[in-house]
C-alpha cells in the first residue's frame, strides 16, 4: 500500500494554524499532517490594544484554543518546543513541554512548513524589563493595562521601534525592499487609539505622544502616496515625531536614549523591538544571514524544495505583518498540496501588499491597502466605522472558523473598505 506523505508544520499561531487548515482543505486524507507548537491556543495579537484600552486582561479574550479544529480535520498536534531542524536528514527535534525534564524527540517529514514566527528581542534592550511597555503579547498587554489604569500620571509618552536587522541573501527575491523597523503599523495604530484613551480619561492630548522610528521615515512600507497624507495628518493633530534614531540605546526611568545620541523624555515608553529568528534557525543552510527562511514567492526554499515557510519566519515577509502571512499560506498550501496530489495547474505567486485594519478608538478604525512599496500602484487609505467593524469581524470569523478563513473573506473585507469610509 502506498504510504501517505508526511507534512510537518512548525508553529500554530496565525500562519501555522491557517496553513494547516488550508492544507487539510486541499489534501483531505491524501497526506498525514502534524503540527507542533509550544502552546495549544492561538494568541490573537492584533486586537491586544483594543482589550487593553477597555481595561480587559487580553489573555481573557484573545487566547483561542485550536485543538478541536485539528481533531475534526484529523491533523495530529504535538505540544512541544522545537529545538532543531536537520534539513539533510529531514528531521525535526523537539522537546515535549507538558512537564519539565522531557527528553528530546525526533520526527521525520517529507514536507516541512516553518511557521515559527520570530523571537521579539526585548532582552536586547537595556532597561526594557524595568521601564518598557509593549502590546505584542497578552502578558505585556496586561502589564501596560495595569500601568495605564493604576500608575500613569499623564506624562509624556513615546511610541516606536528598535532597529530591525533584516536578513540578507542573494537568493531572496529582489522585490522585497529593506526595512529599518520590523512593523510600524502597530505604533501608528497605537498613536490614534492611545490618543482616544487619553482624551476619554482626560490625561492628555496628541502633544503628549511622540512617535519615533529608526528609519528615515516612519511606516515607509505604506508607500509614498499614503505617507503624504498620513504624516502631515499626524503632525497637524499635534503628535511629536522623531526619525532616524538608528535604534534604541537604553531605556531609563526618565525616558529613551537613542543610538544617534538623542533622547526623549517619557513616562510611558511603548517599544517594538527587533524581530530576530530563533537561535536554532541561525546558520541553517535554508536561512539567510540572520536566520529568516529563504523562499521564492511560492514560499518554497530554492535549495530544499520540500521546505516551505510562511508568516514572520519567512525572509520575504517584510514588514512582519499577519496579512502578508495570510497571503503566503494561501499560496504555499496550494503549491504543496498540488504537488502531493499530482495536479499540474500553475499557482500564482504571492504578490505582496500591505493590508492593515487599525483601531483608532471610539469604534473607529483605519484601513490601508497598498503595494506601492513593492513597486505597485495601489494606495487606499480609509478611516471610519467600517474598518473597525471589519477588524472586529475578522477576529470573530478567525476564532469561529479556526483560521480556515474562506477564500472570499479577505477580498470581501477589501471591497467593503475600498467603497466606504472617509
Ligand atoms: C501589537 C501588534 C499588532 C499587530 N497588528 C496587526 C494587524 O492589525 N494586522 C496584521 O496583519 N498583523 C498585525 N501584527 C503582526 C502579526 O501579529 C504577526 O505578523 C503575526 O502574528 C505573525 O504570525 P506567525 O504565525 O508568523 O508568527 P507568530 O504569531 O509569532 O506565531 C509563531 C508560533 O510559533 C510558536 N513557536 C515559536 N517558537 C517555537 C518553538 N521553538 N517551538 C514550538 N513552538 C514555537 C509560537 O508559540 C507561536 O504559536 C501585529 C503585531 C503586533 C505586535
Tell me what the structure shows:
The strands form six sheets. A seven-stranded mixed β-sheet has the order 7-6-5-2-1-8-19. A five-stranded parallel β-sheet has the order 10-17-11-12-13. The chain has eleven helices and 22 strands. The protein starts with a strand and ends with a helix. The longest helix has 20 residues. By secondary structure, the chain is of the alpha/beta class. Bound molecules: flavin-adenine dinucleotide. The site of flavin-adenine dinucleotide has 34 residues, from helix 1, strand 2, strand 5, helix 7 and helix 9.
What's the rounded overall pLDDT mean?
Answer: 95
* Total number of distinct structural domains: 3
Name the strands of the widest sheet in spatial order: 7-6-5-2-1-8-19
Largest sheet properties? 7 strands, mixed
Q: CATH superfamily of the largest domain, please?
A: FAD/NAD(P)-binding domain
- Unreliable runs: none
- Tell me the Rg in angstroms: 21 Å
- Give the count of helical stretches: 11
Content of β-strand: 15-25%
Q: Distance N terminus to C terminus?
A: 61 Å
Judging by the overall fold, what is the CATH architecture of the largest domain? 3-Layer(bba) Sandwich
Percent in helix: 25-40%
Q: What quaternary form is this?
A: single chain
Which structural class should the secondary elements be placed in? alpha/beta
CATH class of the largest domain: Alpha Beta
How does the overall form come out from the CA principal axes?
Answer: globular
CATH topology (level 3) name of the largest domain = FAD/NAD(P)-binding domain
Number of strands: 22
Amino acid at each position: 500500500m502506498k504510504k501517505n506523505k508526511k507534512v510537518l508544520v512548525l508553529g500554530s499561531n496565525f500562519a501555522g494554524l491557517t496553513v494547516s487548515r488550508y492544507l487539510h482543505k486541499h489534501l483531505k486524507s491524501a497526506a498525514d499532517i502534524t503540527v507542533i507548537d509550544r502552546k495549544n491556543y492561538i494568541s490573537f495579537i492584533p486586537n491586544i490594544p483594543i482589550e487593553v484600552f477597555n481595561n480587559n486582561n487580553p489573555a481573557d479574550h484573545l487566547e483561542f484554543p485550536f485543538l478541536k479544529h485539528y481533531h475534526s480535520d484529523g491533523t495530529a498536534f504535538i505540544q512541544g518546543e522545537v529545538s532543531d531542524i536537520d534539513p539533510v536528514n529531514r528531521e525535526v527535534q523537539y522537546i515535549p513541554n507538558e512537564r519539565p525534564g522531557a527528553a528530546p524527540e525526533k520526527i521525520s517529514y517529507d514536507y516541512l512548513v516553518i511557521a515559527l514566527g520570530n523571537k521579539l528581542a526585548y532582552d536586547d534592550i537595556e532597561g526594557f524589563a524595568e521601564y518598557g511597555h509593549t502590546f505584542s503579547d497578552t502578558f505585556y498587554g496586561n502589564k501596560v493595562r495595569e500601568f495605564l489604569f493604576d500608575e500613569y500620571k499623564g506624562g509624556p509618552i513615546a511610541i516606536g521601534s528598535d532597529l530591525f536587522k533584516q536578513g540578507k541573501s542573494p537568493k531572496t527575491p529582489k522585490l522585497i525592499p529593506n526595512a529599518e523597523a520590523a512593523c510600524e503599523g502597530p505604533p501608528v495604530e497605537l498613536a490614534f487609539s492611545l490618543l482616544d484613551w487619553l482624551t476619554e480619561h482626560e490625561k492628555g492630548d496628541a502633544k503628549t505622544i511622540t512617535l519615533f522610528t529608526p528609519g528615515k521615515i516612519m511606516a515607509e512600507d505604506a508607500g509614498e502616496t499614503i505617507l503624504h497624507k498620513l504624516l502631515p495628518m499626524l503632525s497637524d493633530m499635534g503628535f511629536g515625531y522623531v526619525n532616524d534614531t538608528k535604534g534604541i540605546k537604553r531605556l531609563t526611568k526618565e525616558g529613551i536614549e537613542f543610538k544617534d545620541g538623542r533622547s526623549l523624555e517619557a513616562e510611558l515608553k511603548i517599544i517594538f523591538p527587533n524581530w530576530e529568528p530563533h537561535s536554532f534557525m541561525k546558520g541553517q543552510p535554508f536561512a539567510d544571514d540572520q536566520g529568516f527562511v529563504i523562499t521564492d514567492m511560492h514560499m518554497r526554499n530554492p535549495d530544499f524544495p520540500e521546505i516551505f515557510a510562511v508568516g514572520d519566519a519567512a525572509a520575504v515577509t517584510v514588514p512582519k505583518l499577519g496579512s502578508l502571512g495570510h497571503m503566503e499560506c494561501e499560496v504555499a498550501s496550494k503549491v504543496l498540496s498540488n504537488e502531493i496530489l499530482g495536479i499540474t495547474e500553475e499557482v500564482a505567486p504571492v504578490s505582496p501588499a500591505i493590508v492593515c485594519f487599525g483601531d483608532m478608538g471610539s469604534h473607529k478604525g483605519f484601513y490601508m491597502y497598498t503595494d506601492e512599496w513593492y513597486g505597485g500602484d495601489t494606495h487606499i487609505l480609509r478611516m471610519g466605522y467600517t474598518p473597525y467593524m471589519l477588524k472586529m469581524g475578522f477576529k470573530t470569523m478567525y476564532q469561529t472558523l479556526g483560521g480556515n478563513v474562506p477564500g472570499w473573506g479577505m477580498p470581501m473585507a477589501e471591497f467593503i473598505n475600498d467603497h466606504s469610509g472617509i
